[in-house]
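Quick question about two entries, pasted in order.
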Amino acid sequence: MAVLDQLYPQQTAQSWDQVGLVSGDPEQPVQRIMLAVDPTLAVIEDARAAGVDLLITHHPLLLRGVHSVATTSAKGAAVTALVVADLALYVAHTNADVADPGVNHALADAAGVVAGEPLTYEDDQPLGIVGDLREPLSLKAFAEQLAGRLPAAPVGLRVAGDPDATVRRVAVHGGAGDGAFDAVRASGADVYVTADLRHHPALEAREEARGGTPFLIDAGHWATEWLWLEGARERIAGALGAAADSVEIEVSQRRTDPWDFLVPSGDPRTTRDDQTGGPR
């Protein structure tokens, strides 16, 4: 816990967040650690089956008020599974987002950003990163390159913009980032990589751009944050020093993206006349 708080200080988490130790005894021995994005029932079962003592996740298990931990609810079942398995759970969420290096640095690296700087600030903490590519790419080529560096997810990347347009300056924000459009515009970014882009904010952002920049890429919440895990594993091992020799640290390979498959709905470039009365 001391190492984790050194790398991802709890006081740097946003005021609404719930980070730190969720289950477990600070005095219990730890010989095997697993890192994951989400503390889902499947991830907890994977950790239990692997003999893990400490599960470190990016997303909190208990973010809002809980009045029962009965196993009739998924949250209750998760808490029960953790306690029965003597499995400690520790959360590093927005404090891992703002760490240097942290979640956004991992995403910026995957996007090919060099010499990045904070995109914006909230509660005196930097959110997101903006910087330039080593060389310009078409929007399509950039999206394809990014897709090749992200973990595979069923929905893939959603892209808004001219595929042949040239992009060089890139803004990134791991996880949900549709609240940062003003900062993205002010940064001069050609393309914004984030996730969980809702219809109305994304549509308004494209309207404000008048078809130009910033273009948008929704790369998925889980995928944009999973990238952080391997770097966190390496930094935790390094900070443990000699003690790392007696501790196994692994990254969960389980996909916790909620979507399972994608069904194409036709070519959106076709006109009304080419379909049976459908919209352009």
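Here is the second entry:
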Amino acid sequence: MNKPSAPAADRAGLAWDDYRFLLAVGRAGSLNGAAKRLAVSHPTVFRRINAIERALGVRLFERARDGYTPTPNGEEAIAAAAEIEARIAATERRLSGLDARPTGKVRLTTVEPLLYGVVPPLLARFRRAHPGIVLQVTADNHTQDLARHEADLALRPGGEPPEGLVGRKVARLASAVYRPRALRLPRGAGPQDLDGYDWLAPAGNLAHIAMAQWLRRMQYDRRTVFSANSLLALRDAAAAGMGLTVLPCYLGDAERGLVRVGAPVEAMGADLWLLNHPDLRRTERVRALADALREGLRELQPRLSGVPQAAGATP
């Protein structure tokens, strides 16, 4: 009777794909987390890690209910995988940086709210000017790692660029308090006069943003009746009448079910940064998209700053 064929890892040394699985489990600390990073199923990661351990003849992870913890051998393998990944990413960046053709794929990562009426028209105009460039957009509140070449450009609110990246402020984002249209407030009530109302608050990976910090300083968070890690969810819940919330003006002003309460609150404002890796600054397709985004966002600055638009103005 013929024996079943062994996995590739059992027949030869580990391939780079095997190291990717080790690195993902090591970084995530769980099979589920690694599966999400790799865009594969939980059983696939489970089988792959077991096959790698059989091929090497050593245990690389200690299994527990709360996750996978690397053994000393596992830590060594993960460190080797991280080094390989860094070398591959550096090589890809250098090769991409030599490409002066305005063709190919450009990967942009940004936060989800900016994809609602702000960034897509700019990308459509860019595509008309550069039909040879293919765009891949990732909407994620977590920063894609530009150093590991997970993205070419990042458009994100926040502070100074992380070490190793270059960035430029491309806009100032204003934020304000919004009420459901059906909720009436006392005449002249402003953002400082809203104690005692129900509030909808940013939570999860949005708990650190300036809007969430302002709610805590004002102690409005004590009346939180709904929280979410999505500004779009907060917008829709407020428009449905659940309570007051805080939103970027470009998002709140565009929702007919909401009314802004007073002027934008300066303490909730944030700078919008366009980030990339220094190795890609000379890549023509990346440079072209960066220039287009800077120009387009400069045109949109009044709207992003919360300046009321005239009736019939193009959003």
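Reply: Residues 1-11, 311-315 have pLDDT under 50 and may be disordered. The chain has three domains: 8-90, 99-172+270-304, 175-265. Hope that helps.
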